[in-house]
Amino acid sequence: MKKIGFIAFAALLASGCAQTQLSPKGDAIFYALQADTMMNTWRYECAEVSSRANYTAQAARTDWWRRNGELVKGADFGLAYNMVTVTDTRQDTGARVAMALTWEVQERAQALVTEKLNKASDKEALCLEILGEYRQGDWDIKGSEEMRQALMSMKEDAKTSEDVLALRRGMIEKATGKRYGRSLYVVEKHAEQNGCSKDDISLVKGEWPFEVYNLNCPDTPLSLMRCEWGRCNFME
User: Is the pTM of this model over 0.70?
Assistant: First the structure.
């Protein structure tokens, strides 16, 4: 499956604006999820550099999430809601679009962070510098006032529309016989790379941002893959 571009994604969300007041602007969702993914990518990669960088990474995540968490939650809800309401007539189309967006955002962040770390003569110094900027708010979700209002509005909508979201998801799962998770596309990639069956993957736990999948791998009777914020690894 080809990656979905931001323009196509924004257009898809925009197509639902006439149907529901909850349809947000695609750029607000994309911007917030991209910012959160970038923060997490620095956190994960720097945690491997040194114990000092790992400590700073965890502190940076805590500080950043305290200031930006509500906006990210709003974006997550907006994405999920639009995917099951704008495209419900095409069953799994919405789920696939959401997974492709998760993959694209993760791929962009990973490429950028990896490039910067590979070029750095002192990886720890770079991590401490970037993470320090995250701690003091240099990389907070800002954007325009309209964008912030859209994200906060989605967060408020989540309080009253979770039942609708759950109902729509149930309808899709019943119609397709599949239970989707945001990280499924990433897991499929891992399955292909490890000789596992791409078509025999089941979602065991699906509470974003933490998901667990079961894979059918010929060399391993029970293969489980744990995903956190779109980053997936086999469980030992």
Answer: yes
